[in-house]
Structure formats: C-alpha cells, structure tokens
Amino acid sequence: MDQQAATLLSTLKRPAAPSDSKINQLNALKSDIKHYRVPETAQSTIFECIRLAITQQASATLASTAFSTLGHLLKRLKIQDATGQAIRQLAPKLFPALQERMGDLREPVRNSASQALTELYSIFQTDVEQIVLEEAIGGNNGRAKETGMKWVLTMHNEQAMPFKAYASSIVARLEDADGQVRETAKTVLIELFSNAPDRAKTDLKKQLIAHGVRLSIASQILTALESGSRPQDNDTDMSASTRSLPGAEHIAHFAEELKSEAAQPPPPEIVPMDPIYVHTQRELEDVFREMHPHFEGKETEQNWMLRDKSVLKIRRLLKGNAANEFHTVFMAGVKSSIEGILKVSMSLRTTMSSNGCQLVQELAKTLGPALDPHVEILLQAFIKASAATKHIAAENGRITAGSIFQNCSYHVQMMRHIWQAAQEKNAQVRQYAPEWLMIVLKRQSSYRNSFENSGGLELAEKCIKKGLDDANPKVKEGNRVAYWVFAKTWPDKAEAIMSKLDPKMKAALEKHPGNPHAVLHASHPAVAQAARPAGTNSRTALREMLEEKRKAKTGGRVPPRPNSAMADISPVKNTRSTPLNGSTRAPSNLSKVTNRTVSTTSNASSTAADPPTATKKGSSLMSGPVRRPRRADPPRPQTADPYSSRRLLRPETPASNASPAGSPGRGTGASKASLATSTTSAVRNRAKVDATAGSPGGSHSASVDSGLPTLADDEGFTMVIPNLNGSQSRARSPLAYRNPMKAMFEDARERVGKLSPEAQKSMRRALEDGDGSEQQQGGPAKPSTPQTEEVQIYEDPFIEDGTQPGAQDDRQVLGELPINENVRADSPAQSVGSSASPVDSPVNNNDNTSTNSASTPTIPSQDRSDVLRDRRLLASAIERIRTKNLDAHGFRRVQDLARSKLDIWEAGKKFDELMSVLLEYLRTFDSDVKLTSLPASKSSGLKTQALGLVRALLTIYRKHAAPWYAKSLVTVIACRKGADPNSHVLADMHRTTDVIVSEASPEVCVDAILDALPSLTSIDSSSVIAMALTNLRQLLLTANTRDVELSSDRRGKMAQATARYLGDADSEVRKADVELASELFETFGESKAEFWSEFKGVEEGRLGLLTYYIAKKGKNGVNGVVA
C-alpha cells in the first residue's frame, strides 16, 4: 500500500497525466483501504493524494472519487485507532481544499465537501464551525453561503446540532445581494425554527429587527412559522393538538411590532438585471459623477438613451452592495441625481418613464425612511403624473406614489397631498386618492394618537366626506372602501360621517361589500319565497282557498267578486233621512294605498246592486271589491314630460238624477264601461266633481293652493280650484252628504284664504285671462236653471316629497284617492256617456264661446285644459321662485313649459314677471341663508337649472326677451363671484353669456356692463371683473362682425374702464383688460390719440406691455402707436 500510495502521488503531481489513469489508481487505493489495514507510513501520503485530487479542476469524477476515498479512510482509521490520533494530525491539511470546494460550480462537488465536513465534525468541532460560519456563510462566494447554511440545517436535523450560534449569520444573509442566497436563508430559517420553542422565535424576531430585514421577508418567515407549526396531516388526531387560535394572535403580534402590512412576497422583476458591486467609496462616487452631465438640461435625441442607461445603472447598484456597505455615499449620489430621476420619470417615452418610476419604487422599498428628505418633491411629481391621459403613465404615477406612502415615514404633509388629490379637477386623481388614503390609514392604525394630534384624522375625514359626495361613480366606490377601512379604527368618527349622508348615499354605503354587516342590509327574496307553503304557490289555488274560508265564515252569503274594484256600484238612495253610515266603509289607512277598500258612495249609478255589497267590509287579501296592488310605473327620466304618458281616472258625481239643461244624456252602461276601463290608469289623477250651485251668473273658477298634505309615497301636492267669487251658498244635493271628497273640498275652501294676496291675485288673473273667451260680453245677467260648479284638482309639480305637520289628521278620503292628472283626448274615461261637464263649462262649451281679443288665440277644446293647467303651473312656479322654494326638478318643468307651444304668457306679462323673479333669484343666490346651507351638489344643480331656464327664455321668446338681455348679462356676471372655478356651473355661466352676446344688441349690453362696473367692483371679486371685461371684448367683436359702429362716447367709456384695470393686482383681470384694450384700439381708426389720452397716469411699464400686445396685432396697430 505504501508503494501504491507513492505511485498515485507522483501521478497526481503530473498535470500531463491522463485523468483516467489517476481515477483508476485512486479507485484501486480506495479498494485496498476498504479491505485492508492502512499502515502508519502510508497514512500521510494517502491524505496528500486525497488533497491533490480534491483541488484538481480537470475532472469532476476525480474529485468525487477523492471524497469517497476520504470517507473510507476516516472510517478505517477510526477502526484502527479509536482515539483518532492520526486523523487529528493529518486531516487539518484538507481544510483549505474543502473550504474551496464548498463554493464549487458543480453541486455534487459542493455536496461531497459538505459531507466531508460532517464526517470531520466529531473530531474537529471548533475548526469545522469556524470554516462554515466565517469562511462559508460569512464569505463572499454565494454558492459557499448556500452550502454552509444547508450544512447547518443538515447537522441540526441529523445530529441535533445547536444552531443558535449560526442564527445571526443566517439572518444577515436575508439582506444578501444574491436573490438565491436570500431564498436559501429564508428556507433554512423556517426549517430550523419550525419546531423551536417560543423563546427561540422571540430571539429570531429580535434578530430580524436588529439586521434591518425588509418587512415583507420578515412577515413571510413569521407567517410560515405559524402555518408550519400547525398539524398538516388530515389523519392526525386533532384532540391531541396543543396548538390553538391564540397562536395566530401571537404571530400577528410579532408582525405588528415589525410594523408589517399584509405578508406579501416581493414582486418579481419585470426585466431581470444583474447587480453591480462596488468595492470602494471612490468607485461609487465616480459612478454618480459620470451620470450628472446626462441629466442636465432638457431631454434631447442625444441624451435620452444615456439617461435611461444611468437609471438602469442606479437600479443595478441598488441590487448590489452600494446601498448597504456604502450607504452614506449612495444616498448622497441619489440626492444629487434626484432631479434627473424625476426628469426621466416624467419623460414622454413610455419605456424610459417606466424605468424611472420603477427606480423610485425600488428606492422607496429598499431605503424606506432614508428616502424621507425627498418625499415632498417625489409626491408632488408622481401625484401630478397620475393625472396623465396616457394610461401607462398614470398607472406608473399611481403605483409609485403608493410605494412612497407605503414605505416612507409618515408625516402630516402626506395627508395634505392626499387631500389636495381628493379636490383635483381631474377625476382620475380623485379616483386614486382613496387608495393612497387606505395605505396611510392601515399604517397609522397602530399609532392613533400621533395621527390624530398631527391633524391627519381631520384631513382623512374631509377626504372621505368629499369623496362620498363626488359626482363620479368610480370615485364614490373607492371612497366607500376607504370609509370602511377608516371605520375599523375610528368607528365613532365613521358613524358621524354616515349620519350626515343622504338616504341614498347611506344605503349604498351600508350595502357595500366592505361593510362587515352588509349582509344585514341585503334583502333575501329567495328565502322568503322558499318559506311559503308548497301548496299555495299558485295564485289561483290561494284565491280558491281564501274564498272557501270566507264562505265558511259568512255562511255562503258572500256575493261574487266584481271584475273591477270600481265596477260594484251601490244604488242611489233618494231619501235624505238615510243615515250617513248606512253604507259601511272600511277605515282608511294612509300607509296602504294600494290595498284599500273603495267606498261605494264615491260613484253613483241607476243600476241596482246586491244590498250586501254596500255593507260588507273590505279584506286585506282581495276577497272583496278592492283593487289589486298596482305595479310600479316604469322608470322615466326626470326631464320627461310629466303629463305625456299618464291616463286619467275621472269619477263623476251628478248633482241630481236629471242631466242639466243642454247637456248630453248619460247612459248607465257608458258610465260603467268608462269606470271599468279607468281602473288601469295611474294612481295620480285629476278629477272634476260637479256640485249643484244656484248662482245665476254662471260658473267661475280660480286656481289656489289647497295646502293639503301629501302621502309619504306621493311626489307632489294638489291645487284645488274652488269658486272664489260665488256670493251665494251652495245648494247641496242628497248625494253631496255621501260624497267621499266632501272633506277635501271643505278643507280646501278654508285654506284658500291662507295664501298671500299676491298669490291669490296671480291665480285669479290667470283664470280670468284663460276663461275670458268663455264669458258672454254685454247685457245683464239672465237668471237660468241651476248649473253645476266645477272643482278641479291639479297636481302642483313644483313640490318635492314631504309631509306637513298634521297631515294624517286632515287627509281622509283624499289620502286614498290622489287624483291629479288631466283628461287626455285618448283617455278611455273620456267617452260620451261618461261626460259630466255642464253646458257652460270651459271644457265642453266651445260652440257658445265668443271670439276674444287678438292677444288670446283660439285654442282647440282638447288643448284648453292644457293651457289652463300650464298657466296655473307657471303662476305657482313664479311664486316658488320668488320664495326660493323651487327645486331643480321644478326648474326643469318650467323649462318644459317654456318650450311648449301654448299661449301661457298673457301678452308678455307673465314672461316679464318670470324673468324678474328669476334674475332676482340668481342675484341673491349666494347671499340667501337657505340656499347657501344646501350641499354643494344641490346648490350647483339649482344654479345650473336656473341658468338653463334663462337661456331657454331668451332664445325661444326673442320678442319678449329684448328688454331683458342687458339685465340678464349683468346678473350672470355678478353671479360669477360665488362660482367654484372647478365647478360645471362656471361653464353654464359662460354658455349663458355667449347666448346673450350673440342675440342682444351690442350697444345696450355695453352700456349695461359699463354702468354696472362700479357696483361689480364693490363685490371685491377679481373673477367678476375679469368676466365683465371678457364680455365687453366679446360684445366689441360682435359689433365689428355685424358692422355696428359704437359711438365715440361708448368707446371713450370703454377706454376709461380698460385704463382703470390695467394695473390691477390680479393677473386674470390684467389679461382680460389687455385683450379688451387691444381690440378696442382698432375701433378708434385714425383718432388713436383719443385712445391714448384715456391712459394718462398709468404706469409706464403697464403701457409698454399694452403697446407690445397692440403691436403684435399688426402693422395698423404699430402705426397707431407711432402716431
């Protein structure tokens, strides 16, 4: 064996010797070691042969054979000498070779070296630990680090080696520049501590904090430790497990102390890049110094590629060791390059911009609080970038700003940036604001006191309030999510916010998936359906079952159910002595309008019905003559004609059994047919009820506000038109005592006097003008047979939902029969047989009317009611605009009236009255306490609708509008003060002024604005002055276009006005003034000196600026200046 070992040694020392020869000789020696005793004289030579074979790079097989020989040699020497003396003396010469092989490129070689250290550990414990801890794990070779950490794990699992001494070095590798080393360290730590006691895990948490391990990696380790410690086998007996839910809270406590958000793995690299390692500070300084020239100036075709490469180099340095080993120099370099990085991030080249944004994100995630000095400038830039129209640029800005909010230290200035983003005009930025707000709220949930004391909580509340009231649905949705995140930490504040919301907004917020109790606010129709008995699913079966029960109770004396709720009519009793309660009526229930019992006395007919029908009581299950629940009306837009598709129910109550003189005969069959058909009409109807009257002068009617309260589910109130001028008492027929609407009419008469004198006068004038053509002119009044009086009930569309105090007590029959619509020509109720209008009524008396003056055109009979209705609605609208009680929907209805072709203006009187109150409404809008207390969205909506009404009136009725152009223009300009620059109301104002300027006479409007300028100046609003000057310029351009020459006095006054505001402190006013002066200069023609004479006393600098702009307009301006 001595000769064999010597031969092998000489062969290994010869580099030119073939590898196969070396392997064969080494295998022969290994075979002898396995079977024979190794002499002491050959032991040293054999160790040297193994060392040489391990260090040779020519053949992997040779190295593997050498490691295998070493294993057999160690076993043989332990057998020969249990003390291991020979191994202690000869094995240390192998340590450098083993250390080198632990970083070998070939994994089998690394594994063999690790196994060799394992075999030597029992004898050389201290030396092996030093090699692994300092040379392998703590070295510079990434593969050696991985091998050393895996060796520690193997030794702990196989030989129960304590790993506490290695924990700190392995934790340090979690921040290694090599991603594979980080992954190996994370895996090894999870395996080592998975079965460790809680004390060891606490030490691990301290080590993670001490080494500054990034939060995402630390959270992953802690979460994996918890999940790995729970039993995973389904067959495991869970009763024997000692792990319970508090363990999760324990780990969550660790994560909270680490200030960790959700355990998220680091995002994968979009473009993989190799790290750059630097060795000295000077080298790192030189790298940044070379970049500075590329970032200077603007982006050009020559420097954009160099800028992009510089950004990529910084990203590679960040992945290397620069940020950790040379932190101060690296931060100084970032500070010097931050402006260039922002230029790259804001570039129009998408790929280049994305690289810049990615760099800022990586800086925020890696440096964290070290980036705090640059947070302000970065947030300003990237919040602005999130408003870009290009989707990629906007997304990059959003994500980058979110990374800064997530990783940098919190400061109240961050909340101010979010608050500004929530107020942005760009909806895209407002949509991103709640996302950033949620990041801050989640981070600060553990630091409530500091967040509240710094003012952040107040800003967060303002952001959420404004976002929930935003017009954009996406912004609202994002803020609902932010609201429920906010509510988890500050429930009291969140409840206060919700209590101030509108019912619709509150309902949407409560039903949001982010609400932990959202399931309580959701309806479950399927469950309710399933709860019904299986045998009664059929409506027919249910009806039959109820019918049998009812017959069993009443002994079979119940009459058959009528086809319609209105078809079962009781006979008319002629005796007055009949008690009023002879016909029992089910009590009214205002909350159940659709399931009510209809009084049989509300209709009269000569056809007899079964006596029990008049006395039976109503049932809530449709067993008697009750209406079925009405289906909901199809949704209609708010701007649709409110009278375009509804049909009319028109119940008739004759004054006696005989028809009035001259009226068409009524047939019972026709009445019943019309009533049966009318049951399918809408609930809101308008009814005309005729009552006997004895006044010889004919019937008169006027429109008044009845003041009757509304049902909870109704949209408007009704206007009742009783006889205001009748001097004689009404002769009541027997049916009048049983009329179900008697209480309504009497109550209306009592409330007529409650209207203001102006309202009564306006209503009466509207009726008198509308009915003037119906009255016979001249001659004394002839006594005639008693005619029936008309009481018409109209719905006023200008009232919103609401109930007045005491409504439930006053509303009896009317509460169940809301009738407010007019009869249409195609209504099935409008039949010959059912017509109950008297001979002299305005509806039917078309043949006997005399021609009126030319101011009131002849109107067909089917439009007469529309004219009367629209006039009453117009009068009501004027009154409500005057009292500032008209809502936005009411303004839209007035616009519909203005666009109608009916004569409702009474030769222009009503037009002037409407324009007067409308302009007064706009002029005092911002000073009215009631209007200014409304939410911003409602007040802007009211102002927008009012301006739209002004435009409609001025464009449709040019003849009546001529005197109002100038007043309207001045009023709209004065309204500019209260308009938000970011609101859509401002656009409506400009649209209105453009309409006025295009339609009006320029001279009149110029004089009006010049006269109003002193009063507008007293408003102390630069925007008002700027708007006035801009409109003067538009009027000047319009005059030039129409070849209208302004007088010299007007031009002089306009020049004086421009001279007055040329030195104004506000730039917007100066700009508008210079533009006006430039246009005005051209109108002076040859007399330019008159123009300049008005500017005496103005600063030379201002005059120079004006001269410059005038000169820019052309050579004529230059000549004028010279003159």
UniProtKB/TrEMBL annotation:
Pfam families: CLASP_N. Gene3D superfamilies: Leucine-rich Repeat Variant. Transmembrane segments: none annotated. Residues 593-615, 669-682, 837-861 have a biased composition (Low complexity). InterPro entries: ARM-like (IPR011989), ARM-type_fold (IPR016024), CLASP_N_dom (IPR024395), TOG (IPR034085). Keywords: Cell cycle, Cell division, Microtubule, Mitosis. One of its GO terms (molecular function) is microtubule binding. Signal peptide: none annotated. Interacts with microtubules. Microtubule binding protein that promotes the stabilization of dynamic microtubules. Required for mitotic spindle formation. This is TOG domain-containing protein.
